[in-house]
Amino acid sequence: MVKQATSKQRIVVNVTASADWRRRPVGIIRVERELVKQLRRLHPTRIEPVLLDRQSGEWKLTGAPLFDEICSDEWVLADNPDDVPQALKKPLAPFKPSPTDKFVTVGSDWSFDIPDRVMRLYGQHKALVAALYDLIPLLFPEFTPGPEFFDQFHRHYRDVAKYAQSVFSISEHSKQDLLEFWQRAGLSGPLPRVEVVPLAGLPRKAALPQLSAAERAQLHSLCHAGEYVMLVSTLEPRKNHQLMLDIWRQLHLERGAHCPRLIFVGMRGWGAENMIQQMGQMNATRDGKIEWLQGVGDALLMHLYANALFAVLPSHYEGWGLAATEAASFGKVCVTSNNSALSEATGGLSPSHHPLDLPAWEREIRRLIDEPEYRQGLETRIVNGFVQRTWDDFGREFSTKLL
Fold this sequence. Notes:
Blueprint: E1 11-14, H1 16-20, H2 27-42, E2 47-53, E3 58-61, H3 63-71, H4 86-89, E4 102-104, H5 114-122, E5 128-132, H6 136-139, H7 148-163, E6 164-169, H8 172-184, E7 193-196, H9 213-224, E8 228-232, H10 241-255, E9 261-265, H11 273-281, H12 283-286, E10 290-293, H13 298-307, E11 310-313, H14 322-329, E12 334-337, H15 342-346, E13 352-353, H16 358-370, H17 372-385, H18 391-402
Parallel strand pairs: 1-2, 1-4, 4-5, 5-6, 6-7, 8-9, 8-11, 9-10, 11-12, 12-13
Antiparallel strand pairs: 2-3
Helix pairs in contact: 2-18, 5-7, 9-13
Domain Glycosyl transferase family: 227-346
Protein name: Possible glycosyltransferase WbpX
Keywords: Glycosyltransferase, Transferase
């Protein structure tokens, strides 16, 4: 049951990140969009979407028409994603806070001093419901685009401790990282409660979704070329794609045409230029044994999971690991790193290894390729033991714990 609240208690939702993003949603943007849709469904009369006007520093009401546009699929499938839509060029009404508000913000808030901005709206009343995905910029700053992220996260989560009433965490592991950070920082006084609400993923239904003609042709081409292994993630150093390239180099040298394909699915991220150049020049890539797909929609991604041999996610650290959850939803093994929150993402049902232990990863991948009985036994364990969460489940649990 979702908790009931007085009709006057608004749920103010910061949709600035979603308004800014005009491409296929990934990572934090995807979570924000799914949460906004759930809050809209569960609390249609209480939700009040707002945007931060970065020029004036003021919060603005989106109004229903603009909110409808931001929530639509068309918003994130724009032909010219860098163009500012007409709806954002129109003047927006100012937002006026109420002392009973809950102010929910789950975007990339560390870059915009959101806790301080919300505190200036509400004063001593703690209205802020903040989000925690991970503390990677503090724990492993080398896996961020620049040194400013360390300072931003350090300031942001100290401010969250001072100004938030509660924090939504995507995993128990991230929650413990945050509590330890606050302890090391010597923060005193009452701290916000941290509630874990695990993420959902792509829904596995009785029938796979319909594809467009172009998607059907692409899927046919991919499946016709033989067995494949998937790594679904933005291409960036933390995701450790390099480990898979090193393993596939050896597999291709040994097996040639009989080597399964390695398919990367994800957008180009920061710091991946050298790896992408290397990948493009590899003989395995020239022979079609390594492929990189970008701009893949949810429907095609579901078909790719369903037809994959298995998946891998060798990240150096994760706040969750949505690709591992999605693979399990389709009954597929996803070999992950044995760190951070990845065991939560798989339910502990898939093999895991240290992200730097290339021999262990290579042995595991060879076994999954060469021993169907082993792979099928793991798949049976996943099908019988993995508890699939929907975004409806996520929305209800978020509402119960935080609103």
